[in-house]
Write a structure and sequence with these properties.
With 404 residues, the protein is an alpha/beta fold. The chain contains 9 helices and 26 strands. Helices cover 22% and strands 29% of the residues. The longest helix is centred in the last third of the chain and has 15 residues. The structure holds flavin-adenine dinucleotide (FAD).
Length: 404
């Protein structure tokens, strides 16, 4: 038999491969990844204190043979032949599948016409992280384009390692997408206190480089000279092989609530897919989130085996910058009111409610533990579609647990 084939050996693909075994599947499992490494964790690549040069493996190499999973690295899938139930490898090999999982992830958005690699970088892989890290030291000036999570995490990492950092964001503030203004501004202030030069509300006119430096000219004519530039302006889902095979695409590979694509033999999970978010009545979203990739890998594996599991997790994301953690549970779209809960001078939670008083989302910023614990409880409230009393949410002496 041809068995289960998984394209993409990242968080979602690896989890799915092992979940197939955990769920009792005994046929062949093949995991194909185009990177030359063992599957590795991406979050540490942009976080200070982690060793970017050493790959942090998702699982130890020995676990693949132990679980009888055939893992092939450096193996790019070029096409899907749906009629034949097979995939075509870039090196011309063909592999048949009984069920196929696409876990191809996402790739950084580029600015066309730039020469990437030496002084101009994007960040998704361990090689790119190592290249960026080389300029993170005293006497070097790193320019970051984009005030999203990756840009901000790199700014914090750059400062920790002694580099000067300038961050340019076209929007009026950092983290416009998905993080409430109050928390974004608090975080921005912290970056400025740490010495990051943040410029918001400015587009880029030109980017030029010579042998030793890179120059960014802003729309208002200001010139910024740096030793390296990181472009952190978002990511696009890797949908090429799915699109060529005629699968439905809509900001990602379209899946239903079982993570099945428009072809019942093909599933998708992780950053590459757009799925209906059950807790919001099936409104579509595509997340770029570590835990989402794992959870979707688990559910996709079950459904590849003919089970009927609905993916209904609440979206959740975290980011670490300096000693602060930022966490967001749920999606705030459609919220009409916000309730704040002060945990301490440095830690705050925000709850976002819809017109009926239902809790849609919660976000928190602060040093470690308290934020994480309360966001976890908020996530449970969101999952239960709770309508908590706003006065209770605002009162830090009321335990969130008591509202469950
Ligand atoms: P990926 O991890 O991207 O894996 C997909 C794999 O498929 C890749 O190896 C790709 O090369 C391969 N592939 C693609 N096409 C093919 C093909 N045709 N043939 C073979 N292989 C293919 N999330 C958080 O929640 N918190 C964080 O703090 C956080 N920090 C992050 C920091 C960085 C620098 C980055 C890049 C991401 C971060 N994320 C974070 C996001 C998180 O890492 C992703 O959501 C997660 O990796 C998604 O897993 P995935 O398996 O869907 O995709």
């Amino acid at each position: 038999t041809s068995g289960m084939v998984i394209v993409g050996a990242g968080e979602a693909g690896v989890r799915a491969a092992f979940a197939l075994r955990e769920q009792g599947y005994q046929g062949p499992v093949t995991l194909l990844g185009d990177e030359p490494h063992l599957p590795y964790e991406r979050p540490p690549l942009s976080k200070a204190g982690e060793e970017a040069e050493t790959v942090r493996a998702i699982v130890a190499e020995a676990r693949f043979p132990e679980a009888e999973i055939v893992f092939r690295r450096g193996c790019k899938v070029a096409a899907i032949d749906r009629a034949e139930h097979s995939i075509v490898l870039e090196d011309d090999g063909v592999l048949r599948y009984e069920r196929l999982l696409l876990a191809t992830g996402a790739a950084p958005r580029h600015i066309l016409g730039l020469r990437y690699g030496e002084r101009i970088h994007t960040l998704r892989t361990v090689e790119q992280a190592a290249a960026i890290r080389r300029v993170m030291r005293d006497g070097q000036h790193l320019i970051i384009l984009g005030g999203g999570f990756i840009g901000l995490e790199l700014a914090a990492m750059g400062r920790r390692l002694g580099a000067a950092v300038t961050l340019v964001e076209m929007q009026p503030r950092v983290l416009m997408r998905g993080v409430p203004e109050r928390l974004a501004l608090a975080l921005q202030a912290r970056h400025e206190a740490e010495g990051v030069n943040i410029i918001c509300g400015q587009g880029v006119a030109t980017i030029t480089e010579d042998q030793t430096s890179v120059t960014v000219t802003l729309a208002d004519g200001r010139r910024i000279d740096g030793d390296a530039l990181v472009i952190g302006i978002g990511a696009e889902p890797n949908t090429a092989i799915a699109a060529e095979a005629g699968l439905a695409i809509e900001n990602g590979i379209v899946v239903d609530d079982h993570l099945t694509t428009s072809d019942p033999g093909i599933f998708a999970a992780g950053d590459c897919c757009s799925y209906p978010v059950a807790v919001y009545g099936g409104r579509r979203a595509r997340l770029e989130s570590w835990r989402n990739a794992q959870e979707q890998g688990n559910v996709a594996a079950a459904n590849m085996l003919g089970k009927v599991e609905v993916f209904d997790s609440v979206p959740w994301f975290w980011s670490d910058q300096y000693d602060l953690t930022l966490q967001v549970a749920g999606l705030a779209d459609g919220s009409v009111s916000t309730v704040a809960r002060h945990l301490s001078n440095e830690a705050e939670l925000l709850f976002h409610l819809d017109a009926d008083g239902r809790l849609l989302s919660a976000s928190g910023l602060g040093p470690g533990g308290a934020v994480a614990r309360d966001i976890r409880l908020a996530e449970m409230l969101i999952a239960r579609r709770a309508h908590p009393d706003p006065a209770m949410l605002a009162d830090p002496s009321v335990k969130l647990k008591s509202l469950l």
